[in-house]
Amino acid sequence: MFESIIKLSFFFLVIGFMLADGIAQGQSTLDTKGRIRVRAREHFERINIQTDEDLIPYSGFTNTINLWWEVPFSYQVGFAGSPLLAKLYTKDPPVGFSDAITLIHLGIEAKFFPLPKGLPIFLRLGFYDTTLDTRSETDKLKGSSELFGAGWEFNFSGIGVAPEMAWRYGILEQSVRFQGTAPAIGVHFYKLL
Questions:
Q1: Which CATH code, of 2.40.160.20, 1.10.645.10, 3.30.70.120, 2.60.40.10, is assigned to 38-189?
Q2: How confident is the model at residue 15 (pLDDT cuts 50, 70, 90)?
């Protein structure tokens, strides 16, 4: 409980900084350019799951869907869910794990562009309730996870292409922890969606 309060406090602190930055630059951060949007990105995740006895590497393609308030190339904040229909795979899993797992993240994310408008470098922070479905006798383990990402978004006539590198860390029940990387690509149709 205390850990969740700290995460939410940090998240709202980041949002406060984004709003203060927009006000300091003389911009209305909730102006007519901002809208609720649905966005998606594809990842290739590589994670290591640490149990008391084993370190199990998994990898595979996953995705994230966002529903959030967006001011293009300024900031976005809202809900995130991952994956839609994806599994991570390993060879020779230990007892209690299968060769295919699903690591589900539901939470909140913020993406913001901290540099002047000419430099479209962005940072992403995320906090999630996480469920690991081992598809075996261990069944489902619940916990929480965090994500930190950094990337560059290119604007091609209203289409944003955003390569990104993210790092994920989580703590689950039964003293299970995981950490990993998730290079991703997002394609955003700003003029259409």
A1: 2.40.160.20
A2: low
